[in-house]
Design goal:
By secondary structure, this protein is mostly helical. The chain has one domain. The chain contains four helices and no strands. Helix 1 (22-48) crosses helix 4 (91-103). The protein is elongated. It starts with 21 loop residues before the first helix and ends with a helix.
Length: 104
C-alpha cells in the first residue's frame, strides 16, 4: 500500500488547477463514501447512548473507523484533510470528489 505524502506536488494529470490525479480523487471518493457510511451507522448509536461515556466511546470508535477508511485507500489523514480543505474553496475539485464518492 502506497501512502500519499502530505503537501506532495502532483504532476498535472488532469485539468484540475491543483493537479490532483484521477487516481487520488478515486481513492478520496472511496474513503469519503466509507466515512459517510460510518457516520450514518454510528450517529444513531450516539443518539441512543445512555451516558456521556457511552457517547464518547462510540465517537472514538467512529474516529478510528474513519481513519481506517482513509488509510485503507493508501492516503494519509494529513493528505486527506489537505485535499478536503482545498475542495472547500475549489468548486471543480469539490464536484470531482462528490462524483467519486457517489461512485464509491
Amino acid at each position: 500500500m502506497t501512502t500519499v505524502k502530505p503537501n506532495h506536488s502532483y504532476p498535472s494529470a488532469d485539468s484540475s488547477e491543483h493537479g490532483i490525479p484521477d487516481e487520488v480523487i478515486a481513492k478520496m471518493g472511496r474513503a469519503l463514501a466509507e466515512i459517510a457510511e460510518v457516520e450514518q451507522e454510528l450517529s444513531a448509536e450516539i443518539d441512543g447512548a445512555e451516558t456521556e461515556d457511552d457517547r464518547q466511546t462510540i465517537a472514538e470508535q467512529a474516529d478510528r473507523a474513519m481513519v481506517e477508511a482513509i488509510e485503507d485507500q493508501g492516503l494519509s489523514v494529513t493528505e486527506f484533510k489537505r485535499i478536503v480543505r482545498t475542495a472547500e474553496s475549489d468548486p471543480a475539485l469539490r464536484q470531482r470528489l462528490s462524483a467519486a464518492a457517489k461512485a464509491g
